[in-house]
Write a structure and sequence with these properties.
This protein has five helices and no strands. The protein is mostly helical and about 140 residues long. The model has no long low-confidence stretch (mean pLDDT about 70).
Protein backbone atom coordinates (compact mmCIF):
# COMPACT_ATOMS: atom_id res chain seq x y z
CA UNK A 1 0.00 0.00 0.00
CA UNK A 2 1.26 3.47 -0.83
CA UNK A 3 2.40 5.64 2.09
CA UNK A 4 0.64 8.62 0.53
CA UNK A 5 -3.06 8.47 1.52
CA UNK A 6 -4.00 10.33 -1.68
CA UNK A 7 -2.56 7.51 -3.79
CA UNK A 8 -4.41 4.74 -1.94
CA UNK A 9 -7.41 3.11 -3.63
CA UNK A 10 -10.93 4.15 -2.71
CA UNK A 11 -13.44 1.65 -1.35
CA UNK A 12 -15.19 1.48 -4.73
CA UNK A 13 -11.87 0.71 -6.45
CA UNK A 14 -11.27 -2.09 -3.96
CA UNK A 15 -14.77 -3.50 -4.61
CA UNK A 16 -14.15 -3.38 -8.37
CA UNK A 17 -10.83 -5.23 -7.88
CA UNK A 18 -12.50 -7.90 -5.74
CA UNK A 19 -15.16 -8.38 -8.43
CA UNK A 20 -12.39 -8.77 -11.01
CA UNK A 21 -10.79 -11.47 -8.86
CA UNK A 22 -14.14 -13.21 -8.49
CA UNK A 23 -14.57 -13.16 -12.28
CA UNK A 24 -11.07 -14.61 -12.68
CA UNK A 25 -11.94 -17.42 -10.26
CA UNK A 26 -15.19 -18.10 -12.11
CA UNK A 27 -13.42 -18.01 -15.50
CA UNK A 28 -10.81 -20.50 -14.30
CA UNK A 29 -13.59 -22.78 -13.11
CA UNK A 30 -15.36 -22.39 -16.45
CA UNK A 31 -12.17 -23.23 -18.36
CA UNK A 32 -11.80 -26.43 -16.36
CA UNK A 33 -15.41 -27.25 -17.09
CA UNK A 34 -14.96 -26.71 -20.84
CA UNK A 35 -12.27 -29.37 -20.88
CA UNK A 36 -14.86 -31.94 -19.83
CA UNK A 37 -17.47 -33.26 -22.15
CA UNK A 38 -20.77 -31.35 -22.33
CA UNK A 39 -22.76 -34.31 -21.12
CA UNK A 40 -20.62 -34.76 -18.04
CA UNK A 41 -20.89 -31.05 -17.26
CA UNK A 42 -24.67 -31.11 -17.44
CA UNK A 43 -24.75 -34.04 -15.04
CA UNK A 44 -22.38 -32.28 -12.63
CA UNK A 45 -24.45 -29.10 -12.59
CA UNK A 46 -27.65 -31.06 -12.19
CA UNK A 47 -26.19 -32.98 -9.26
CA UNK A 48 -24.99 -29.80 -7.56
CA UNK A 49 -28.38 -28.12 -7.76
CA UNK A 50 -30.30 -31.26 -6.87
CA UNK A 51 -28.07 -31.64 -3.79
CA UNK A 52 -28.86 -28.08 -2.78
CA UNK A 53 -32.58 -28.73 -3.11
CA UNK A 54 -32.35 -32.10 -1.35
CA UNK A 55 -30.51 -30.55 1.57
CA UNK A 56 -33.11 -27.84 1.72
CA UNK A 57 -36.33 -29.78 1.18
CA UNK A 58 -38.25 -26.86 2.54
CA UNK A 59 -37.40 -24.89 -0.64
CA UNK A 60 -40.51 -26.29 -2.25
CA UNK A 61 -42.73 -25.12 0.60
CA UNK A 62 -41.35 -21.62 1.05
CA UNK A 63 -41.60 -18.59 -1.16
CA UNK A 64 -39.40 -17.74 -4.11
CA UNK A 65 -37.46 -15.04 -2.22
CA UNK A 66 -36.48 -17.37 0.60
CA UNK A 67 -35.40 -20.09 -1.79
CA UNK A 68 -33.30 -17.58 -3.71
CA UNK A 69 -31.70 -16.45 -0.44
CA UNK A 70 -30.76 -20.04 0.38
CA UNK A 71 -29.29 -20.56 -3.09
CA UNK A 72 -27.41 -17.26 -2.79
CA UNK A 73 -25.93 -18.34 0.55
CA UNK A 74 -24.81 -21.61 -1.07
CA UNK A 75 -23.04 -19.63 -3.80
CA UNK A 76 -21.40 -17.35 -1.22
CA UNK A 77 -20.20 -20.41 0.67
CA UNK A 78 -18.71 -21.75 -2.55
CA UNK A 79 -16.83 -18.48 -3.09
CA UNK A 80 -15.65 -18.54 0.51
CA UNK A 81 -14.36 -22.11 0.05
CA UNK A 82 -12.48 -21.01 -3.06
CA UNK A 83 -10.74 -18.24 -1.11
CA UNK A 84 -9.91 -20.66 1.72
CA UNK A 85 -8.45 -23.12 -0.80
CA UNK A 86 -6.43 -20.28 -2.26
CA UNK A 87 -5.14 -19.43 1.22
CA UNK A 88 -3.99 -23.03 1.67
CA UNK A 89 -2.13 -22.85 -1.65
CA UNK A 90 -0.57 -19.51 -0.71
CA UNK A 91 0.75 -20.94 2.56
CA UNK A 92 2.79 -23.43 0.54
CA UNK A 93 4.33 -20.74 -1.66
CA UNK A 94 7.71 -19.23 -0.71
CA UNK A 95 7.62 -15.94 1.14
CA UNK A 96 9.32 -13.07 -0.66
CA UNK A 97 10.37 -10.34 1.73
CA UNK A 98 10.49 -6.78 0.48
CA UNK A 99 12.58 -3.96 1.85
CA UNK A 100 9.94 -1.32 2.27
CA UNK A 101 11.15 2.25 2.14
CA UNK A 102 8.08 3.58 3.92
CA UNK A 103 7.89 2.20 7.42
CA UNK A 104 5.80 3.93 10.00
CA UNK A 105 7.17 4.05 13.52
CA UNK A 106 6.32 6.22 16.45
CA UNK A 107 7.46 6.73 19.99
CA UNK A 108 6.24 9.00 22.77
CA UNK A 109 7.98 12.29 23.46
CA UNK A 110 7.73 14.37 26.61
CA UNK A 111 6.89 17.74 25.09
CA UNK A 112 7.23 19.63 28.37
CA UNK A 113 10.94 18.73 28.48
CA UNK A 114 11.36 20.00 24.93
CA UNK A 115 9.63 23.28 25.79
CA UNK A 116 11.81 23.75 28.86
CA UNK A 117 14.96 23.18 26.80
CA UNK A 118 13.85 25.62 24.12
CA UNK A 119 12.85 28.28 26.63
CA UNK A 120 16.40 28.24 28.05
CA UNK A 121 17.75 28.99 24.57
CA UNK A 122 15.57 32.08 24.17
CA UNK A 123 17.65 35.08 25.18
CA UNK A 124 17.35 38.65 24.17
CA UNK A 125 19.92 41.43 24.38
CA UNK A 126 19.46 45.06 23.68
CA UNK A 127 21.49 46.33 20.76
CA UNK A 128 23.23 49.66 21.23
CA UNK A 129 24.79 51.93 18.59
CA UNK A 130 24.03 50.06 15.38
CA UNK A 131 25.41 51.78 12.32
CA UNK A 132 23.52 51.28 9.06
CA UNK A 133 24.58 52.81 5.75
CA UNK A 134 22.03 54.24 3.31
CA UNK A 135 22.52 51.27 0.94
CA UNK A 136 21.75 48.78 3.66
CA UNK A 137 18.79 50.82 4.84
CA UNK A 138 17.09 50.82 1.44
CA UNK A 139 17.62 47.08 1.11
CA UNK A 140 16.04 46.41 4.49
CA UNK A 141 12.89 48.50 4.00
CA UNK A 142 10.09 46.89 2.01
Amino acid sequence: MDSNPGKRPTSSEIIIKLNEWLNIIENKAENKIKKRSMFREIIIKFNKWSNIFRRNKRLNNIGRDKSLNIIESEIKNKIKRQFLESDEINEKLPIIKENLKDIYTSKPYNITDINKSLSKLKTSKTAVNIEVSDDQLTLCIY
